[in-house]
Design a protein that fits this description.
By secondary structure, this protein is mostly beta strands. The protein has one helix at residues 2-10, and strands at residues 24-31, 39-41, 46-47, 51-56, 60-66, 72-77, 86-90, 94-114, 116-119, 124-126, 129-135, 139-146, 151-157, 160-161, 165-169, 174-189, 197-201, 209-210, 214-220, 224-230, 239-245, 255-259, 264-281, 287-291, 302-304, 307-314, 319-326, 335-339, 343-351. It folds into 4 domains: 2-103, Sandwich (Immunoglobulin-like), CATH 2.60.40; 106-182; 184-272, Immunoglobulin-like (Sandwich); 274-357, Immunoglobulin-like, CATH 2.60.40. The strands form 5 sheets. It has a 15-stranded mixed β-sheet that branches. The termini are far apart.
């Protein structure tokens, strides 16, 4: 019986009992919240989730504690073992109890995109993936470092973000994402001249709004931006958007859509419109006909600088044209005005001196 027990404990067939050898049962208890997934190995050990046992007919037995890094970590042995994972236990008569303490630990995985890197205690990185293993409830602070040039921002997911750090508490397997995003400045400009507005759409939250000739805002690289040039073809302003200059907006209408690929300055230029005011007197059926007809303003007859407008009187059979007034004079059948400023023209009509019109 002693020979077979020695074989189980040492893995070899013993020819005779070892002088001074013990004969007993070794019980290794797997303690701690990681005990059920901890591993204790050694010759002849029979283990379940809570403990391992072996009958030994030898002076000692060597056992080793280990665990899957994604599940638990070996912490320490009880006496007579030290903190090292491998322990040689002296065998005495009867039963001897030893405990191996394990703590639960979890995997932290950090995915990195963009031009940057991350660091944290016990975190190792290969390419764009960083991995570390931490005891349950351990607070971990991950630090991000921008390795590119120029402006940037850091976007975290799966953790509590700070300016350049992010914090997690390891209550289970945890995945964190970090994106290092290049930023560029878009500057909107309103050159001196006729009035107009320039702003980003939609006008919610933080948006680019040029109030005093020039304003700037940062955008993520490759973001799509819409700028609106708003003119005022009505009221006392009477301005019309003319053109974009600088950057990607050239040739577009009052709304410019572009992708941000670098710092850029975009200017919106407006042109002044001039109002031609036409009035008549004398007869209700007398009118002034303008050629071309104004379509630029919504509530007045507006023309561009230096536009030429030909005016002629129009009336019914019992009415005669008498004379022009304002920017026109005389009683010619037509009057031509050049719109280098806002102008007023009047036409006077009278009843025709004809018995049929009495």
């Amino acid at each position: 019986m002693a020979t077979s027990l020695a074989a189980r404990a040492t893995g070899t067939e013993a020819a005779s009992p070892i002088a001074g050898a013990g004969f007993g049962t070794i019980v290794v208890t797997k303690a701690g919240d990681g005990g059920p997934v901890g591993v204790v190995s050694g010759p002849g050990l029979a283990c379940d989730a809570a403990r391992c046992t072996v009958d030994v007919a030898a002076a000692s037995i060597t056992v080793e504690a280990s665990a899957s890094p994604e599940a638990a970590r070996f912490i320490t042995w009880s006496a007579p073992c030290t903190a090292a994972a491998r322990c040689t236990i002296p065998v005495t008569q009867g039963s001897r109890d030893v405990s191996a303490t394990f703590r639960q630990q979890f995997k932290l995985q950090v995915g990195v995109s963009g031009t940057g890197s991350v660091s944290a205690p016990e975190l190792t990185c290969t390419g764009a993936t960083c991995t570390g293993y931490y005891l349950k409830d351990t607070p971990v602070t991950i630090t991000g470092a921008w390795t590119g040039s120029g402006r940037h921002r850091v976007a975290w997911t799966g953790c509590t973000p700070g300016e350049s750090t992010c914090a997690v508490t390891m209550s289970g397997p945890t995945t964190v994402g970090v994106q290092f995003i290049q930023r560029f400045v878009v500057t909107g400009s309103l050159p001196p001249g006729p009035y107009g507005d320039l702003y980003e759409e939609p006008t919610v939250g933080e948006y680019l709004n040029v109030r005093f000739h020039r304003a700037s805002r940062e955008f993520d690289a490759d973001a799509w931006v819409t700028l609106r040039a708003k003119d005022y073809p009505y009221g006392n302003l009477n301005t019309l958007f003319d053109h974009w200059s600088g950057g990607p907006c050239a040739g577009q209408g009052t709304r410019c859509l572009f992708r941000v690929t670098g710092d850029v300055t975009i200017a919106a230029t407006f042109r002044q419109l001039y109002v031609l005011t036409l009035t008549t007197s004398g007869r209700d059926d007398g009118h002034i006909v303008a050629d071309p007809v104004s379509t630029l303003c919504t509530d007045a007859s507006c023309y561009n600088h230096r536009d030429t407008v030909r005016l002629r009187p129009s009336h019914e059979a019992c009415t005669v044209f008498v004379s022009w007034g304002g920017a026109c004079s005389g009683n010619a059948g037509t009057c031509t005005v050049v719109m280098d400023t806002s102008k007023s023209v009047s036409a006077t009509f009278a009843r025709r001196n004809n018995p049929a019109c009495q």
